[in-house]
Write a structure and sequence with these properties.
Structural class: alpha/beta
Length: about 475
């Protein structure tokens, strides 16, 4: 599929998907979707309004009781069919992701496979929403605990993984018996709309899944969260926006799951397998060009091996081919928009002004589109702004340490706690450090932690709740206790 275009996706909806039907925005509004490789318009999609948001809630409400009552095996078979359809159309989906998001095709193909796995995993989990029964300690009665769907769920997803972040929420919600409204990021609505069509083709009943593209994100999400019929909000995005949404959700005491920002440390000890550490760094840093909440953001390397590590990392990053994500030979695509590229550039310039040295990159290429050069910085001062914010770009700041306690203290010195990475050949040290790192996930001698079968989530201001694993479905269920005697 060398010359991919939207015409290659004949059934791609470009309007709102409300209750299983395509429809224009209530005011006729539309907004443009840009190609990050050129900055040019790809197409336009309907721009949902508050009125449209309420129509989505109406559709979800109308379908809620029958979907909750649908046999778990039937829900499971629909999710399994969605997995199969995604797998059949994987190349097409990957090209669509690259077109609107900018990521290189290898990353987009990886995302597509990962995204489909959430439908397969929750097809298997849908039949495992088991409750419990026990005798009360007093012996007076039995304690029966049922697991029931929490209700209508509003799902708000980011642009960096437009397929996977949608399926990671839709899969467990449907498995649990919830109806959902997906509000995709405005930069990447096309993949979400295709997911709606695939789910419909898989047999999802009308009203169970709606997709609401909208530039007026705050207004439409607020309206839905304030509707008393909505009982769940799941958001993946920045901590700043997450704080706002938590305040909004408090008005109706809506059940919330929040997967927020990250500032992942990558620790390399003096006894690390250097080949493995470099391979892991390339995955943790350069997957999706660094545009991931799990991306390695701060590299803390023991002084004995720091020079070797920095040199080898720069060599590997320099060898990467930068270009449009849809080109087969591209390994690093553009960032998603001008704002993202400008922010990365500002962070790097600030670090250099504070004393960091550029080993590789450190600039924006002279070409159209929203690119940033793969960059390695050394001698980064501890107080540099680049260490306190998500970079969300292909930039690796390297600092040194000599003491394990100091390395852990630097790693934990952040408001975030999503994921950390540790490289050492000493198993006792690896497990000891993993326990002391304040993060919801740790990659021990691994640069990739995401897995549909594992609970994904963070500590501190990186979020609330878990996605993936059995825990991910429980986030869409309520425990009902029945006191009964027999």
């Amino acid at each position: 599929m060398a010359d991919f275009s939207l015409s290659s996706v004949a059934d791609l909806p470009l309007d709102l998907w409300v209750g299983g039907v395509e429809r224009a925005a209530s005011d006729g509004g539309r907004f443009d979707v840009l190609d990050p490789a050129t900055g040019q318009v790809i197409t336009s999609v309907a721009n949902g309004t508050v009125e449209d948001a309420m129509a989505c809630v109406d559709a979800a409400d109308a379908a809620a009781a029958s979907w909750a009552a649908t046999a778990p095996r039937e829900r499971a078979e629909i999710l399994r069919k969605a997995f199969e359809l995604m797998t059949e159309r994987s190349d097409e989906i990957a090209h669509l992701i690259s077109l609107e998001n900018g990521k290189a095709l290898p990353d987009a193909r990886g995302e597509t496979a990962y995204a489909a796995e959430f439908f397969r995993w929750y097809a298997e989990e849908a039949v495992r929403a088991s409750g419990t029964v026990m005798t009360a300690p007093s012996g007076a009665n039995r304690i029966l605990v049922l697991q029931q769907p929490v209700g209508i769920a509003v799902l708000v997803t980011p642009w960096n993984f437009p397929a996977a972040m949608a399926t990671r929420k839709i899969g467990p919600a449907l498995a649990a018996g919830c109806t959902v409204i997906l509000k995709p990021a405005s930069d990447t609505p096309l993949t979400a709309l295709l997911m709606a069509k695939i789910l419909s083709d898989a047999g999802v009943p009308e009203g169970v899944v709606s997709v609401l593209p909208a530039r007026r994100s705050g207004a439409v999400v607020s309206a839905m969260v304030h509707d008393p019929r909505v009982r769940k909000l799941s958001f993946t995005g920045s901590t700043e926006v997450g704080r706002v949404l938590l305040k909004e959700a408090a008005d109706q005491v809506v059940n919330c799951s929040m997967e927020l920002g990250g500032n992942a440390p990558f620790l390399v000890f003096e006894d690390a397998d250097m080949d493995a550490a470099i391979d892991g760094a390339m995955i943790a840093k350069m997957r999706n060009a660094g545009e991931a909440c799990t991306a390695a953001n701060r590299f803390y390397v023991h002084a004995d091996v720091a020079e070797d590590f920095s040199r080898r990392l720069a060599e590997r990053m320099k060898a990467l081919t930068v270009g449009p994500g849809t080109h087969d030979d591209t390994q690093v695509g553009p960032l998603v928009n001008e704002e993202s590229a400008a922010k990365v550039d500002e962070l790097v310039r600030g670090a250099v002004s504070a004393g960091a040295r550029v080993v590789l990159g450190g600039d924006r290429p002279d070409r159209e589109g929203f690119y940033y050069s793969p960059t390695v910085l050394i001698d980064v001062p501890r107080g540099a702004d680049i260490l306190g914010e998500e970079i969300f770009g292909p930039v690796a700041p390297v600092l040194t340490f000599t003491d394990e306690d100091d390395a852990i203290a630097m790693a934990n010195d952040t408001e975030y706690g999503l994921v950390s990475y540790v490289y050492t050949q000493d198993l006792a040290r690896g497990l000891r450090v993993s326990e002391r790192l304040d993060a919801g996930m740790v990659g021990l001698n691994r640069g990739l932690v995401s897995d549909p079968a594992a609970p994904f989530g963070g500590t501190k201001q990186s979020g609330i709740g878990r996605e993936g694993g059995h825990e991910g479905m429980l986030d869409y269920m309520e425990s009902k206790y029945v006191a009964v005697s027999w």
